Amino acid sequence: MIAELGLAALWMAAALAILQVVTGLLTVYAGRGGSDDSVLPEIARLTRPSAVMQGLLTIFSFAMLLWVFAITDLSVRLVAENSHSMKPLVFKIAAAWGNHEGSMLLWVTIMSLAGALIALVERRLPERTMQATIAAQGLVALGFYAFLLLSSNPFDRLTFPALEGAGLNPLLQDLGLAFHPPTLYVGYVGLSIAFSFAVGALLTREVTPAFARAMRPWILAAWIFLTLGITAGSYWAYYELGWGGWWFWDPVENASLMPWLAATALLHSVSVLAARDALRTWTIMLGVVAFSMSMLGTFLVRSGILTSVHAFAVDPQRGTFILILLALYIGGALLLFALRAGSIVEGKRFAVASREGALVFNNVMLSAILAIVLLGTLYPLVTEAFGVRVSVGPPYFDPVSAIFVIPMLLVMMVGPLLRWRQDSASRIKGQLLAILAALAVGIIVVVLIGGVHVLPFLGLVLALALAVASLSPLKGRKLRRVPLFTWGMVLAHFGIAMALFGMASDSAFTKEKLTAVGVGETAMVGPWSVKLDGVEPVAGPNWTAMQGNLTASYRGEQPITLTPQSRSFWAPPQQTKESALSTRWNGQLYAVIGEQSAQGRWQLRLWWKPFVIYIWLGGGLVALGGLLSLIGRMMADLRLRMAKRNRALRAGEAAA
Amino acid sequence: MKFAGFLLFGAAMTSSPLMAQDQLPPAPYAYRQLSDPKLEAKAEALMGTLRCLQCQSQSIADSDAPIAGDMRSEVRLRIAAGEDPEVIRRWLMERYGDYVSYKPEISRTTWPLFAVPLVLILLAVAIVWRRVGRPS
């Protein structure tokens, strides 16, 4: 009964999405020519409530899915295929979105919730633009409802209930990963709002600074979640896969990086539009591209095409469905863009040496990086379709993306120091000198350390200079008077410097030790000595493990205990290596225990990774910067509204 | 010995290939480093750019799969024997196909991978040039 309630709610939500598309579009086209909100047709009143109701229904539907997973209802096919009665409750619930159908339901739930939110609170723009926006949101949601209901029903029942579930991939039975997909999805799907706003504004031709200010908080929010999702995903890969790698240029990772790159570009160009009324078409274009990348990522991950093009061809129904949706939405939006872009004036012009100039430059660089990642991710799929298998990996992505990343970082140091419209280098001479000094110091230090390869070398030097540069907009200002959104920018840029430092340091300075030790023996890695005290079997709720008891000492200091495990799960039968980490301010010790060799010695894998943790701390700082920015913008907006209301009140009193 | 070999062969035929490989002890240098840090660094650099054929998007330096271990051992032994890393890459590509190398080379199938970045550079210059005009 619970599963059927969920399914019914989903059908009703889909019906409401149709209603919202029809009423929204009718409103836009009813009074064409006039932009006066007072002549809206009666039917316009239905649009917002149906978006809100649709959000409530999908939430209900998703709650029903969580419910059948929580009680392990094995008559539901999805539960039987992906869960197990012996799993801890949190992983039973996480299993609800750890599969194709469930994650797609999560996708439409977030999508319609986002639609419900804009329908509920967003009232700053002309109502006709909002009607068009909500209609666009409904139209996109509709495709995904169709996908769920026609080809991926999460509430499908089995004719005969299963006796036991098949279990969840042990790699996914980890708290970090349980909450990684929802975070990423909020980011992915949050970008749908930017897409709908862009389409809405194209339909009514109202691309204005007010439109940019209305769109900005939504982009920021989605971008914060994307940043967090990618950072968390990278850390998960780092500690869970057991070899200390944190980014593999894997298509699934790239699928999350591409929307982030587009959203980062969009975030900056929307700021230009809001502040200076420039870059109108460019902003709209990025709005379309960002969500297109989200959809493309979903297609890549969900169609099975990544495992093999042939796997996709064997069961093409789902993949084809998403591919058609992709073609319809991206193609449709681009067509609309092509038809309307000509009628949108580009906006104000500006000089090379200006804030806009720097932002445009970095927007172009971000777009180029996006293009490289897109090419490197899709190209192997294209050749495979023609029977040639090639691999594109780090040796391609690292140097080729660096071509664009390095100029971008350099411009990023100077951009925030420049004034809007027109500026000169001589005005910011002091700060420029500080940045150059940081570059010089960086080069000298890294040369003195010696033996560092080109890319990590550049990474270390640029990170230091960027750290100095990102703080320099604060120079000469009273810190208490600096607006919150400026703090946000400073923090986010500093976070990029920090993450870059961590990445470069990990590549340049990591020490590795692979060895086999007997009980009581000691292995050395970098400044650490690690002793194997013993190995003992331990048992968890759905696994057993061999646990190594290690004591590790940093340069002869007080030793600490580390307990890496080699776990065997039984449903499904699979082995995982649980790494043990010890974090210091200057790096992380990473320990993994492997198999026992013939002579009774145990394999140990040890890494000393100087400053590696700054990768994810930096990522967190970037997200925090986004959050401060978001709060700052919202507070500024609230103050503006209050002031407006007060003025109106005073004017009313004066008139009376 | 022949009999033992036959038994092993039989085991490999009846169980899945993965299981058979699991039962064999790992190759000598799968989980062991070369004693010369310079050679080991050379081997590391090469291993990071070779694909583990059993995994999804992991290099052989990042994988517990048996075949990755065998390949690591092979790479280390050949590096220790003084072979050039690019010669080893070529040997592996001849054996396993171009797919095994993460480092695409310019060829009739892969030239767009290298042409597109060049086009992008030109395009980026053109866009920046066009966008940035004089303030009116």
Beta-strand content bin of chain B: under 5%
Secondary-structure element order of chain B, as H and E? HHHHHH
Q: How many separate helices of chain B?
A: 6
Q: How many helical stretches of chain A?
A: 18
In oligomeric terms, what are we looking at?
heterodimer
Structural class of chain B: mainly alpha
Number of domains of chain B: 1
Main β-sheet description of chain B: none
Instruction: Give the amount of beta strand of chain A, in percent.
Output: 5-15%
CATH topology of chain B: Helicase, Ruva Protein, domain 3
Main beta sheet of chain A: 6 strands, antiparallel
Which chain pair shows the most residues in contact?
Answer: A-B, 59 and 43 residues
* End-to-end distance of chain A: 62 Å
The strand count of chain B comes to 0
- Mean pLDDT of chain B equals 79
Describe this structure in words.
The complex is a heterodimer of chains A (about 650) and B (about 140). Chain A has about 650 residues and is of the alpha+beta class. Among the domains of chain A are: about 1-170, no CATH class; about 510-610. Chain A contains 18 helices and 10 strands. Chain A has helices spanning about 1-30, 45-70, 75-80, 90-95, 100-120, 125-150, 175-205, 210-240, 250-275, 280-300, 310-315, 315-340, 355-385, 395-415, 430-450, 455-470, 485-510, 615-655, and strands at about 510-515, 520-525, 530-540, 545-555, 560, 565-570, 575-580, 580-585, 585-595, 600-610. In chain A, the strands form 2 sheets. In chain A, strands 2, 3, 4, 5, 6 and 7 form a 6-stranded antiparallel β-sheet that branches. Chain A starts with a helix and ends with a helix. Mean pLDDT of chain B is about 80; it is low at about 1-20. Chain B has a single domain, classed as Helicase, Ruva Protein, domain 3 (Orthogonal Bundle), CATH 1.10.8.640. In chain B, α1 crosses α2 (about 15-25) and α3 packs across α4 (about 65-80). Chain B has helices at about 1-15, 15-25, 35-45, 65-80, 85-95, 110-130.
